[in-house]
Amino acid sequence: MRLKSLLVADPVESVARQIADGCARLAEDRLIVTSGAKAVSLATEHRPEMVILSLELAKPDALEVATDVRSALAETFIVITFRELAVPTMERLGRLGVDDFMPQPLDLTGVFRAASRRFGVHFRRHDRHTVAIDVHRADGVLIGRTIDLSEGGMRFTAFHPVAADDSLLVDLMLPGDKPLRVRCRVLEVDGKPPMLVTARGQFENLRGREHERLNAYLQTLPAA
Predict the structure, then answer these.
(1) I need a labelling partner for 32 at 20 to 30 A (CA). Which of 47, 181, 188, 206 fits?
(2) What is the per-residue pLDDT across 150-171, written as a single tens digit (0 to 9) for each?
(3) What is the Cα–Cα distance from 128 to 126, expressed in whole angstroms?
């Protein structure tokens, strides 16, 4: 499932386009604007379910845009992105009807998670692949086995205790001579010891050669 429409407003077109492209699995139509006036115009015309507004918008600024969008669209999910945000400004935006705030550069996984909370639907940023891969701690101890795996994270059966917000440095035993080492942040855990539990984790700072290795492996698997 995807939203019908998402509006991204940022004064830098390349930034707006990057956000919109990264949200291809979140919304069918993704509108890009670089001015506050155009943001209000398109929001009123297309009535997007979600609007991402940069605090750096000018003429009119993000506060005025948020006011006009909220006035026209009572149910639209409004997110403000910022590089710097003073508490009084945040409080004022909240009173104007802004629903969420996210720092720039924008974490797209955070955007998907916020949308999932807001709309009660689990939006997937990446394809998920059903596969059983052993998961070892960096010291070599087997701590679990994957249930499914994606470019952004994994769901795994945990043989050792894990808790939400744990940061784990793990080796994924992909086919080949060398494990894939990655840091994984545990987002949630289902079940309680002494029974086996299922954990969902998000990969952190996975880039470069290791990112390429994971993508190459995932391309050999069917999507779940």
Answers:
(1) 206
(2) 998 999 999 988 999 999 999 9
(3) 6
